[in-house]
């Protein structure tokens, strides 16, 4: 196995083992709680990446996908005490369909136009949430959602496994021929069409996949808090984007690590009171200034087993001279 | 030998301007066919129509016995009519190998290539024809222009097309870089039996490469014939050198 020689793979494996035994080592519920939330943020960032990092369509309204999963759970909970085994698949289907519904009309939009359209979608959602407060609870949100599992430790394991499986699926999709085609579309859509790639089909699939995992993660979060409200959903549009970009886009795992660690960082900085925002912002700015490709992507490339075949060719003319 | 591509009375207007004005020509299977014309003559607009990126206002394009007007670029490519771009469009984030791999994942090539070893063999074969073997694992954004031009041809050739539309494959190249591209085009034509339709305005290299030419100017066909006939055609000389250009050449 080549993987065994790949230090990145070993590091992730060690990290996962550590996370799996962490509740045994520590009974600090605060740490267990913030780690649980960080797992979900990893899925938010990873699911953002499969659409935006792979096809180049910068989604500034990822919260809309998350909201579908979370609020669907909220609506159903109002009349029926729905359990995660049912609500998560339901969120998956509903948000994937919604992803397709948003994807089809916005497909032709490029660059900033797509970003603005996605931002608009999330804003419309936020306004609808506030306006139709009889269904959504308005600013207050919806309470009384059945909890994920009976206790914080079992919640932790549920979210760890959910996050692990989600990111693994997204990672495999990104590494597969599907991911390769998405990247070709990102590089040059006309060129992809010119060789016969059905770009529409692939872009819509990326939308569906991205929305599906965001929606499922939204539902898991709703169960975890026992609550769904605008304050835990709508700030996610910007946060997810920042986390993915700081982590590094186009490889799922760097983005997911970005989500995981920035979420932890935000929580841990909370203890610093007024310095919190300043330190957070400075760390983000430094990261973008010095690691523009993304912190974990740069780290990953540094740790990558060196490929000796990589060489830059000379121009024919140069060789002759 | 039959006609593989028949373009009839093709008209495309941009506002008041006729970018292609009643263009008609046939391409015979297996030949290397050239379209000559000065900048702005309507050559690329013609290609954009044949490859489905622009819909013509009037006329018909028959490829392999079938009218392809109104079909999407993807559909046309999957039928075996594939184009390149004058300004190269590599898949920048991907290596050369991955660039070629993407083209084998199209509906057309999924039918022709059944297994992974077969795919690898095909990609290496195409890289061999296009003299890209030594850069297969290089990121395509690192490649110099000469290699990018070869990659542009390789990507199209990797779809195993019946007809290859090459839009100014020599543009932006030094004289020493042109020769390898010419060789690649000839190999594609002779070894892969691909019909070539070539747009160029670099006269010398172009004339050596093609069997038959149409010259267009202001969207109209002004001459048709062998390279020799074309270079001696008064209208062609005029379109390149301006009015009275013929007299200059003759004197």
TrEMBL record, chain A:
What stretches pass through the bilayer? 7-25, 31-51, 63-82, 88-107, 114-133, 156-174, 206-228, 240-265, 277-296
Q: Does the keyword Nucleotide-binding apply?
A: no
Chief localization: membrane
Q: Which InterPro entries match?
A: ABC_transp_permease (IPR001851), LivM-like (IPR043428)
Going by the UniProt record, its keywords in alphabetical order are: Cell membrane, Membrane, Transmembrane, Transmembrane helix
- Name the record gives this protein: Amino acid/amide ABC transporter membrane protein 2, HAAT family
Domain of life (superkingdom): Bacteria
Q: What Gene Ontology molecular function terms does this protein carry?
A: branched-chain amino acid transmembrane transporter activity
Localization in the cell = Cell membrane
Q: Is Transmembrane there in the keyword field?
A: yes
User: Cellular component per GO?
Assistant: plasma membrane
Q: How does it sit in the membrane?
A: Multi-pass membrane protein
UniProtKB/TrEMBL annotation, chain B:
The family database entries (Gene3D superfamilies) matched by this protein are listed as: P-loop containing nucleotide triphosphate hydrolases
Q: Which CDD domains match?
A: ABC_Mj1267_LivG_branched (cd03219)
**Keyword Flavoprotein on entry:** no
From which lineage does this chain's organism come? Answer: Bacteria, Thermotogati, Thermotogota, Thermotogae, Petrotogales
Give any GO molecular function from the UniProt entry.
ATP hydrolysis activity
Q: Which branch of life, at top level?
A: Bacteria
Entry GO terms, CC: plasma membrane
Keywords of this entry? ATP-binding, Nucleotide-binding, Transport
Q: Know the name of this protein?
A: ABC transporter ATP-binding protein
Q: For the ABC transporter domain, which residue ranges apply? A: 5-243
Q: Which SUPFAM superfamilies match?
A: P-loop containing nucleoside triphosphate hydrolases
């Amino acid at each position: 196995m080549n993987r065994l020689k790949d230090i990145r793979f070993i590091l992730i494996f060690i990290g996962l083992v550590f996370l799996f035994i962490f509740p045994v080592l520590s009974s600090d519920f605060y740490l267990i709680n913030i780690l649980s939330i960080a797992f979900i943020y990893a899925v938010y960032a990873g699911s953002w990446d499969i659409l935006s990092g792979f096809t180049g369509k910068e989604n500034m309204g990822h919260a809309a996908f998350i909201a579908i999963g979370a609020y669907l759970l909220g609506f159903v909970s109002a009349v029926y005490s729905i359990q995660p085994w049912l609500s998560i698949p339901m969120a998956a289907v509903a948000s994937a369909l919604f992803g397709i519904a948003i994807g089809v009309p916005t497909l032709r939009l490029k660059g900033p136009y797509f970003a603005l359209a996605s931002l608009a979608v999330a804003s419309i959602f936020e306004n609808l949430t506030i306006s139709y407060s009889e269904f959504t609870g308005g600013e207050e949100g919806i309470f009384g959602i059945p909890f994920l599992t009976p206790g914080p430790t079992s919640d932790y394991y549920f979210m760890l496994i959910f996050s692990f499986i989600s990111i693994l699926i997204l990672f495999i999709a990104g590494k597969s021929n599907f991911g390769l085609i998405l990247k070709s579309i990102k590089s040059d859509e006309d060129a992809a069409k010119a060789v016969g790639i059905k770009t529409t089909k692939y872009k819509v699939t990326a939308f569906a996949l991205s929305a599906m995992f965001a929606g499922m993660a939204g539902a898991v979060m709703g169960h975890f808090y026992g609550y769904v409200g605008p304050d835990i959903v709508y700030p996610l549009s910007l946060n997810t984007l920042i986390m993915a970009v700081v982590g590094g886009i186009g490889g799922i795992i760097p983005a997911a690590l970005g989500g995981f660690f920035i979420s932890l960082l935000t929580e841990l900085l909370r203890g610093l009171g007024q310095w919190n925002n300043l330190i957070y912002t400075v760390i983000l700015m430094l990261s973008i200034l010095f690691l523009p490709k993304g912190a974990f992507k740069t780290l990953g490339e540094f740790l990558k087993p060196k490929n000796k075949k990589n060489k830059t060719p000379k121009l024919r003319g140069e060789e002759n001279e | 030998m039959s006609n593989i591509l028949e373009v009839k009375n093709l008209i495309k207007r941009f506002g008041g301007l006729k970018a292609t004005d009643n263009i008609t020509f046939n391409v015979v299977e297996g030949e290397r066919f050239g379209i000559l014309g000065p900048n702005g003559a309507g050559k690329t607009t013609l290609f954009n129509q044949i490859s489905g990126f622009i819909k013509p206002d009037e006329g018909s394009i028959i490829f392999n016995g079938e009218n392809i007007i109104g079909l999407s670029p993807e559909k046309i490519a999957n039928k075996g009519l594939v184009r390149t771009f004058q300004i190269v469009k590599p898949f920048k984030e991907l290596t050369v190998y991955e660039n070629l791999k993407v083209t084998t994942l199209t509906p057309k090539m999924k039918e022709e290539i059944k297994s992974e070893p077969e795919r690898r063999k095909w990609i290496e074969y195409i890289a061999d024809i296009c003299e890209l073997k030594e850069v297969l694992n290089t990121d395509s954004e690192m490649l110099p222009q000469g290699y990018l031009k070869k990659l542009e041809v390789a990507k199209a050739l990797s779809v195993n097309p019946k007809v290859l539309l090459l839009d100014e494959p020599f543009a932006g190249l030094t004289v020493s870089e042109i020769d390898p591209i010419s060789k690649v085009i000839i190999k594609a034509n002779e070894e892969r039996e691909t019909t070539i339709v070539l747009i160029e305005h670099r006269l010398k290299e172009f004339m050596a490469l093609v069997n038959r030419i149409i010259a267009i100017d202001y969207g109209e066909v002004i001459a048709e014939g062998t390279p020799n006939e074309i270079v001696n055609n008064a209208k062609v000389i005029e379109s390149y050198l301006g009015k009275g250009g013929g007299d200059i050449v003759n004197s």
